[in-house]
Amino acid sequence: MPNIPVTTWSLEQTAPTDLLPAEPPEGEVRVHRAEVPSPEFSRFLYASVGGDIRWTDRLSWTYARWREHLERPGVETWVAYDRGTPAGYVELEPQDDGVVEIVYFGLVPAFRGRRIGGHLLSYGTARAWDLADRWPGLTDTKRVWLHTCSKDGEHAMANYQRRGFQLFDTKVEEEAEVPAPGPWPGAYPA
């Protein structure tokens, strides 16, 4: 496979008041925390949301590696459900000195374009700001950050900026072009 240039943008909020919440979508969309660490469910979300946009770094994780990650204090998965069906998720991971990274965020392809993403990002960002309230021993959140890249959905950057995230770094690197794996092998045409 040839190499392609990939631009990665890093964005941040430095105060809870930076968050500009989206209006909730119409219908029965609910966001709930997946409180029981479940490697099966987390891998399902990861593969279903990222399969068409080339999320591949966790596909080789073992069950034990998933469990180890999910059981770390402060790692949280918040899932959006549309009428009971998982529509997307946001994964939070605390770092040092009150920093929380939104490690993964996105929607299953069938749920994109329905205003669920802005709502889920708003909800997930608010939960990043109050993460220490649920995890005694964690430092209060002082900064929430994330990154997106040119391989992500075409509306990702605009959604982050509409929610109040500010750009603080841009990098361009060559990466091997990989086919979209889909939620299972062969799910998307090459």
Automatic annotation (TrEMBL):
InterPro entries: Acyl_CoA_acyltransferase (IPR016181), GNAT_dom (IPR000182). Coiled coil: none annotated. Residues 29-190 form the N-acetyltransferase domain. CDD domains: NAT_SF. It comes from the Bacteria. Gene3D superfamilies: 3.40.630.30. Pfam families: Acetyltransf_1. This is GNAT family N-acetyltransferase. It comes from Streptomyces pseudovenezuelae.
